[in-house]
Amino acid sequence: MNRITDLFKIKYPIIQAGMIWNSGWRLASAVSNAGGLGLIGAGSMYPEVLREHIRKCKAATDKPFGVNVPMLYPNLQEIIDIIVEEGVKIVFTSAGNPKTYTAFLKEKGIVVVHVVSSSKFALKAQDAGVDAVVAEGFEAGGHNGREETTTFTLIPMVRENISIPLIAAGGIATGKGMLAAMILGADGVQVGSRFAASDESSAHESFKQAIVSLQEGETQLTLKELAPVRLIKNKFFEDIVDLYTKTPSVDDLKALLGRARAKKGMFEGDMHEGELEIGQIAGLIRDIKPAARIVADMMAEYEQAKNDIKNVY
User: Fold this and answer.
1) Rounded CA gap, 282 and 139, in Å?
2) Which of 49, 158, 173, 175 could covalently link to 135 via disulfide, CB atoms 3.0 to 4.6 Å apart?
3) Which pLDDT belongs to residue 32?
4) Angle at 128 between CA 95 and CA 141, to 5 degrees
5) b/e string for 203-233 if b means 16 or more Cβ within 10 A?
6) pTM score, two decimals?
7) Is the model's pLDDT at 313 over the cut of 70?
8) What are 15's strand-pairing partners?
9) At what angle are helices 119-128 and 151-161 packed, to 10 degrees?
10) Is the pLDDT of residue 145 over 90?
11) Cα–Cα distance between 229 and 143 in angstroms, integer?
């Protein structure tokens, strides 16, 4: 047992990221049943839809699970109220000030984790009273840090600055990657892209197939003026590139992005006009398989890698 398995009362220190349009109750419950920590991604859910997913997840697993709450979305107070009403015990917050809800949630007996992209924000999260932080390198998919600090350098720098448990994220999809993160100072790992390409992911099958066909260099971080996001290089991405040649304003970028483009891509399967968020590690993801197999394979490779290091040194 380490600090993360102890904090969440789980078997393995593997957290499934609460990705929008990917992380419904099926994925969260499957990961939790496999010994990790499943997270429902509230960012793509209306409040009552979230309530339904929480209830279905409770029916599908008797293991701990949590909800990921991006704080830049509307209906935030309503989402928090539903989480409390439904008795959720673990909340991951991101894209906002950790002081906003941490004290309130902890008063309700909820474990609170905040996602950060720098040591500066990790310290702010620790000062706000969170129980752990996720430090996410810019290799990650979805919304990301502007500094472009890689996981390999971010984790030891954050570890040097905080005393609370640390979860590494960004570019981790294998047991070897997990071991590397732990050696650098992480107590556990958060995995997104690998679980996006799982049987239980709520993403469209076309998006899953796109993930497993991606090669090195076929994603890029963009839209820093809005909220930095790593995207597959499809037609929509090329439209962004073209717009940047004209020195666009923030309003120009917002107009191109429009509404519900992530839903159009990841959930509805529009591979040309949709916003397709995925991490650089997709270049190592070559199959779609059950979440339980992903967890088992990661742990087996992790243990093998530990033994291989002992044999080398």
Assistant:
1) 10
2) 158
3) 99
4) 25
5) bbebbbebbeebeeebbebbbeeeebbbbbb
6) 0.96
7) no
8) 37, 190
9) 40
10) no
11) 4
Burial (Cβ within 10 Å: 0-12, 13-18, ≥19) of residue 156: middle
Residue bearing tokens 């509230």: 42
Q: What is the C-alpha to C-alpha distance for residues 4 and 15, in angstroms, rounded to an integer?
A: 9
Contacts of 280 (CB under 8 A, 6+ apart): 139, 171, 216, 219, 230
Smallest Cα–Cα separation from 226: which of 143, 116, 120?
143
Asked if the model's pLDDT at residue 129 lies above 80, the reply is yes
pLDDT tens digit string along 8-61?
Answer: 999 999 999 999 999 999 999 999 999 999 999 999 899 999 999 999 999 999
Q: Output the CA torsion sign for 223, 193, 268, 73.
A: negative
> In sequence order, which residues have a C-beta less than 8 Å from that of residue 232 and are 6 or more positions away?
210, 214, 218, 219, 276, 277, 278
Q: What is the CATH number of domain 3-202+287-312?
A: 3.20.20.70
Cβ contacts of residue 124 below 8 Å, gap of 6+?
Answer: 98, 99, 116
- Average predicted confidence (pLDDT) for the chain: 96
Q: Which pLDDT value is given to residue 312?
A: 74
* CA–CA distance, 221 with 279 (Å, rounded to integer): 9
Give the C-alpha separation, 26 to 38, whole Å. Answer: 9
Q: How far is CA 16 from CA 25, 103, 247, in A?
A: 12, 24, 38
> What six digits make up the tokens of 203?
């993403």
* Helical residues (DSSP H) of the chain, grouped into ranges: 3-8, 25-33, 47-60, 76-85, 102-107, 119-128, 151-161, 175-183, 193-196, 205-213, 235-244, 250-257, 261-262, 291-312
Give mean pLDDT, residues 81-110. Answer: 96
